[in-house]
Amino acid sequence: MHAIEINGFQKTYRVGFWFQKQKVGLKKLNLLVNEGETFGFLGPNGAGKTTTLKLLMGLIFPTAGSAKILGRDWRDSEIKKRIGFLPEQPYFYDHLTPRELLDYYGRLSGLSSQQRKLRIPKMIERVGLTDTPNVQLRKFSKGMLQRIGIAQAILHDPAVVFLDEPMSGLDPIGRKEVRDLIQSLKREGKTIFFSTHILSDAEALCDRVAVIHQGELRGVGIVSELVSKSEGRVEILWQGAQALRSIEALGAKCSEAGEIIRAELDENSLQRALEIIRNSNARLISVNPVRASLEDYFVSRLAHPVEVAQ
After folding, report:
1. pLDDT band at 298 (very low <50, low <70, confident <90, very high)
2. What would be the CATH architecture of the domain defined by 2-226?
3. 3-class DSSP state for residue 124?
4. Domain residue spans of the chain
5. Is pLDDT of 305 > 70?
6. What would the CATH number be for the domain defined by 233-291?
7. Which pLDDT tens digit goes with each residue over 205-256?
8. Partner of 172 at 20 to 30 A CA spacing, among 37, 72, 145, 280?
């Protein structure tokens, strides 16, 4: 069974003077997400990522189309108990403490007093806030607020977790903390659907990704396959500037970092480049194939949309 099934979602807004003009926020979207996978929804700002998530959450209504979550209509009130959601810019009452906030959301999720008593301390520990359970949220950093945001999204142990730009605006430490939380949710078998424009995070976390641009789905791919494709080029690292000019003559793109030189060249020129390094008594450090990156796929889909096969 698919965890998420989107069938023809569309969203059109009325804008302008007297709302006489129409703006397309989301074109006809068809998308399938498997149970237990981490799915990345990629796109630049304004691409339609948040619109899609708001439609799935029932915060706005589609102009056309429908969806299913865990095999049931996305508007079914019972399905809301099995999903968790962290919006891109959540607002929490800043005078509350983490313990009070989670108690509030636990009540909204239908957890009993005993369930809240057991789960809240574990959740605070899980997101790394054991030192600040009684500190008001107005004193929290952006990363800490994201962690408490994820805590409220998973407090009721949902099967599907929706995260809108969970790493946006975080420093490297905050991003790592959030990535670790997402990976732990995946190990528990939860389905995670998150939107982002930070491609390195998607590459590290996702099983599959979809690219959306200007409200239109441009491509869906398996991350491991996308980043394993060879480009027919190799990268050589060596120490010894005496080989630089000769290798550049082979058409290589070279860059220097201190005594280390990096060159990217066609794999057909590899043997000749190695001979040059050997004959010049330079020290070879490594030879690696140049693989395609998720960024390459992302940029290509923005420029050249293709028929999407899922």
Report:
1. confident
2. 3-Layer(aba) Sandwich (3.40)
3. helix
4. 2-226, 233-291
5. no
6. 3.30.70.260
7. 999 999 999 999 998 988 887 776 666 788 899 998 888 889 899 988 888 8
8. 37
